[in-house]
Write a structure and sequence with these properties.
Blueprint (H helix, E strand, L loop, with lengths): L6 H5 L6 H23 L2 H9 L6 H14 L3 H10 L11 H26 L20 H19 L3 H10 L3 H10 L3 H15 L3 H17 L3 H14 L2 H14 L1 H17 L2 H12 L5 H17 L19 H20 L16 H17 L2 H13 L5 H10 L3 H14 L7 H5 L1 H4 L5 H13 L7 H5 L14 H14 L7 H11 L3 H14 L6 H11 L4 H14 L6 H13 L3 H14 L8 H8 L4 H14 L6 H13 L3 H14 L7 H5 L8 H14 L6 H11 L4 H14 L10 H14 L5 H14 L1 H4 L1 E3 L10 H10 L16 E3 L48 H23 L22 H13 L6 H16 L1
Antiparallel strand pairs: 1-2
Helix pairs in contact: 2-4, 3-4, 4-5, 6-7, 8-9, 8-10, 9-10, 9-11, 10-11, 11-12, 12-13, 12-14, 13-14, 13-15, 14-18, 16-18, 21-24, 21-42, 24-26, 26-28, 27-28, 28-30, 29-30, 30-32, 31-32, 32-34, 33-34, 34-36, 35-36, 36-38, 38-39, 38-40, 39-40, 40-42, 41-42, 45-46
Length: about 950
């Protein structure tokens, strides 16, 4: 007979005999799932039995108490007593109770390990205790050891069942680096497991310290059985760890290994240039130059360099165009000097440490050493960026498909300085990197309409057009650069724009050009020249962290000049990009509190965001501080800092913070930036962004709608996502001009690299832009957006797109910074030129071991129209001029008819006159003989009949009656 109550068994717990108590506990443990409600009333008695050390079955009492608390949903207590049951709690048992407790074990263990790890990160040696304040869960307690034991048993079960990925994931969550390494080592598919671990570490780990520790383990596992293929993955990890010495050692080993290893080293070099900062590349090159095994090779390279320098005069780039002697040279001499400077600059950057080494005696090289020397030279040309820039430049020049007829059409429609400025900017973006300035040369008089800062912007676009053309940069820009220390030889706006253009040409690849721009920054006096020098210097020295450049920028910032200060603050952000420098942050924030210039504070806001690029959790404290500041500019700086610090992470906490500020802040700029920043954080999952901001596109607040448009433009650039284009089409048809402007620009970003086959909507969008440009009743802001959209659609001669991640899937730092600064064209149009930093050539270049492009053919199964360039604008057909019938008024028609009747009557009279010698015929009439009436009377009758057609007045009616009487009287 089945039991209906557990009261009898519960009563046995009060018995003095231990045997009865043990029996009661065993039976209750079997019946607890059915009678837990009754048992729960006596749970205190069960706890007493557990605490009785002398009781033999106290662990069974702990297990029973755990099950009771489990049914009461008191999982914390259930976990505690389950651990106290020790071996009686078997995590391998298949039951709901065990699965729940094991899950709670892992959660609690993760919580404790993460808290402990964070305490270590903050520098504290104290271990975190439980939130209740007791030491139950401290690392030295028995409960903690039992908890760890349960988790270890779970790891063992994963390994037994060959669930290596599950074990690896839990190991990362619980910060168990030993288990992480064990999972990588035991996995049968080692390469696949390493790739999986690498991807997980990059996408899911926010803590920089933990990420670096995990990456070092991956590197150690890779290096345990090294192969040329593994070296590529190893170097990707070393870049993220910021270990240039280990990277140089890997490259050195490959260079000395074999020809195949050298080719792998070249590929690693290309990846390093694409994914790492300037300073890292310089340190790798310097480490290679210091290598003992390659010392003889570098000595031979140094000797050849000295020979080249003796054959041609040496001219320092830093003195070009800035010394007093330069002003006395003729134009031909200046051109020759600058050409030589470009060559010397490229050579110095290819071998950055060679010039510092003293002359040494070089031993003759063997055939093997000569081969290695060639490999080293090839690798150094790749690491310096010269080879990549040269190849991309050739591609863009050869395949330039920019539509000049489109620019002509836009130019003809321009009627305002704003649209004039937009046309010049669109031309720069459309010809980015192509070196084609034909449109500007053909319309010099039209271009001359630009004045003051518009002239500054127009000159800076030359830097966008000649981006990467570094060897000829000084010669090309010589006419626009300062000729003396004061910069007063020409227009200060042109000279400032010229310095800015130099920075755009050498962006993130400054080399010796950094010294030239640093001297110009020191010597400049005029505001526009200093403005351009600060921006150009920041671009050339991007992410180098150079203290001398930082000090000069700070000196310009502290002059409290609005125009110069803004550029200096942006320049500081560019130089200290991604360093997380506490000193730079404190300097910028401190001056933001002192200055009264909003323009400077806006520059500081952008500078702070750039300094914290990629710092993730390290930036949280600063973001919290900025988000509650009284100054709205610093508050939107907090939103921009979230965009940079969590760029591409998709971090939920960052997204929640941005959405909260978007709907709760009282300032329009803060709300706009908060929504725009979502695009930067979520760009690796573009398909999620339209759904995320769809409700914001319907907001009553225009700044939220603008931000939503830009978020989709940033995240979905080049994807042609249907959801994004649909939302943007709706925003383009709005009534607020600046929202339409943002929607047009964002639509162009989304539809880049699309044609009529891949995305038919792109053709409709092009027509829409031309319609807006040609409509004289359209608002200027909408026209500005439409003109800029035309340039973005055909960026780089239809061969470039906006890409925030590299080919290997890492963040593209330069592109992220370029898009961030481009967003501030809202306040300052010259910053539009920073969009060029976000543009990447859409090309796949194949090279052989000599770094030359082989002639090869391949078959594509896709239709040619799939990858065809967009159709250029067709010229309008000249229509034959047709004669248009002139409009005739009714009164005029009547008058003409009257004259025609009169003429016709006269002709009839002439015909009716009898000829000479002929007898006039008579006609019978009813009232009288008409032949007796003279011709004058006939004429009078005709006139009277005609007059009766006109409107009759009283006087005319009287005359009419009299006339009629006279007529019949005759």
């Amino acid at each position: 007979m089945a039991l209906t109550s557990a009261a009898g068994l519960v009563s046995l717990l009060d018995d003095k005999g231990p045997e009865l108590k043990a029996y009661a506990l065993k039976r209750l443990d079997e019946l607890v799932d059915e009678f837990w409600a009754e048992i729960s009333e006596s749970v205190s008695k069960i706890e007493i039995l557990h605490e009785d050390i002398g009781f033999e079955h106290n662990k069974l009492a702990a297990l029973l108490a755990s099950k009771v608390y489990y049914h009461l949903a008191e999982y914390q207590d259930a976990l505690h007593f389950a651990l106290c049951a020790e071996e009686l709690f078997d995590p391998n048992t298949q039951s709901e109770f065990v699965e729940t407790i094991v899950a709670k074990c892992i959660d609690k263990y993760t919580e404790l390990r993460v808290a402990r790890d964070q305490m270590l990160d903050s520098g504290s040696s104290l271990l975190r205790q439980d939130s209740t304040g007791d030491r139950t869960w401290s690392s030295g307690s028995a409960t903690y050891k039992r908890l760890e034991l349960v988790v270890d048993r779970m790891f063992d079960r994963c390994f037994e069942h060959k669930q290596y990925k599950q074990a690896l994931g839990i190991a990362i969550e619980t910060r168990r680096l030993d288990i992480f390494e064990k999972a990588l080592t035991l996995a049968p598919d080692r390469e696949g497991m390493l790739r999986y671990a690498f991807r997980v570490v990059l996408t899911l780990i926010d803590s920089a310290r933990l990420r670096n520790r995990l990456l070092r383990i991956i590197v150690s596992v890779f290096m345990s059985r090294p192969s040329p293929t593994d070296a590529i993955n190893v170097c990707q990890c070393l870049v993220l760890i910021d270990d240039p010495q280990a990277t140089a050692d890997t490259l050195e080993r490959l260079l000395l290994q074999s020809a195949e290893g050298a080719v792998t080293a070249y590929q690693i070099g290309f990846d390093l240039y694409e994914n790492s900062a300037q300073m890292f590349l310089h340190r790798v090159s310097a480490a290679l130059a210091r290598s003992a095994k390659l010392s003889n090779i570098f000595n031979a390279i140094e000797k050849e360099k000295h020979k080249d320098q003796k054959a041609a005069p040496i001219i320092e780039a830093s003195s070009a165009g800035s010394t007093a002697e330069a002003t006395k040279t003729t134009d031909d001499q200046l051109e020759k000097k600058e050409t030589q400077e470009g060559e010397d600059s490229a050579a110095a950057e290819t071998k950055p440490t060679a010039s510092a080494a003293p002359p040494v005696v070089v031993e003759p090289l063997s055939e093997t050493d000569k081969e290695i020397k060639k490999r080293v030279e090839n690798l150094m040309s790749i690491l310096s960026g010269d080879k990549v820039i040269e190849l991309h430049l050739q591609f863009l020049i050869r395949n330039n498909k920019a539509d000049l007829r489109l620019l002509e059409r836009i130019r003809e429609e321009v009627r305002h300085s704003v649209t004039h400025n937009a046309t010049v900017l669109a031309n720069g973006i459309m010809h980015c990197g192509t070196t084609s300035d034909q449109f500007l040369r053909d319309h010099l008089s039209w271009l001359g309409k630009a004045v003051n800062w518009a002239k500054f912007t127009a000159t800076a676009t030359l830097g966008v057009i000649h981006r990467g053309h570094e060897k000829e940069a000084l010669r090309l820009m010589s006419a626009y650069l300062p000729k003396d220390a004061s910069g007063s030889s020409g227009s200060v706006y042109t000279e400032g724009g010229g310095l800015f253009a130099l920075g755009l040409i050498h962006a993130n690849h400054g080399g010796t050009m950094t010294e030239y721009l640093l001297n110009q920054c020191k010597e400049a006096i005029a505001e526009p020249v200093r403005h351009g020098a600060c921006l150009g210097l920041g671009l050339a020295a991007m992410s180098t962290g150079r203290e001398d450049v930082y000090d000069q920028m700070k000196l310009n910032l502290y002059q409290d000049d609005a125009v110069t200060g803004e550029a200096a603050a942006i320049g500081i952000g560019l130089v200290m990009l991604g360093t997380g420098s506490t000193q730079a942050i404190e300097d910028l924030l401190g001056y933001a509190k002192e200055t009264a210039h909003e323009k400077i504070i806006r520059g500081i806001a952008l500078g702070i965001a750039m300094v914290m690029y990629g710092r993730a959790q390290e930036a949280d404290e600063l973001i919290d501080r900025l988000a509650v500041d009284n100054d709205p500019i610093l508050r939107w700086s907090g939103m921009a800092t979230v965009a940079m610090a969590y760029c591409g992470t998709g971090n939920n906490k960052a997204v929640q913070r941005l959405l909260h500020s978007a709907v709760s802040d009282t300032n329009d700029d803060v709300r706009r930036w908060a929504v725009t920043a979502l695009g930067f954080v979520m760009f690796k999952t573009p398909e999620q962004v339209p759904a995320l901001v769809s409700l914001l596109t319907e907001s009553y607040h225009p700044h939220l709608r603008y931000g939503a448009a830009m978020a989709m433009g940033v995240a979905c650039a080049g994807t042609a996502l249907k959801e994004a284009t649909t939302l943007l089409d709706t925003l383009c048809e709005g009534t607020v001009p600046f929202v339409r402007q943002g929607a047009l620009i964002a639509s162009a970003m989304v539809l880049m690299q699309q044609n009529a086959v891949t995305c038919p909507k792109s053709v409709e969008f092009r027509e829409k832009c031309l319609k807006i440009i040609g409509d004289r009743h359209e608002d200027l802001l909408a026209k500005f957006g439409a003109i800029l959209a035309c340039g973005i659609l055909d960026a780089g001669g239809c061969n470039m797109t906006i890409s925030l991640q590299t080919r290997t899937g890492n963040n593209n730092m330069t592109a992220a910074v370029g898009l961030l600064l481009f967003q501030n064209f809202w306040f300052w149009y010259p910053l539009t030129n920073f969009l060029s930093l976000a543009l990447s050539p859409t090309t796949l270049i194949a090279l052989n071991k000599d770094l030359k492009m082989p002639k090869m053919q391949f078959k594509s199964n896709a239709k040619p129209s799939t990858f065809a360039y967009p159709q250029p604008l067709q010229p309008e057909k000249e229509k034959k001029r047709e004669k248009v019938e002139t409009a005739v008024l009714s009164i005029t028609a009547k008058q003409r008819k009257k004259e025609a009747d009169r003429k016709h009557h006269k002709e009839q009279q002439q015909q009716q006159k009898p000829k000479d010698g002929e007898k006039e015929e008579k006609m019978d009439v009813t009232m009288c003989d008409i032949s007796q009436v003279s011709s004058s009377h006939l004429t009078f009758l005709h006139v009277i009949n005609s007059v009766t057609l006109l409107p009759r007045t009283k006087s005319r009616q009287k005359r009419k009656r009299k006339t009629r009487n006279r007529t019949f009287l005759c």
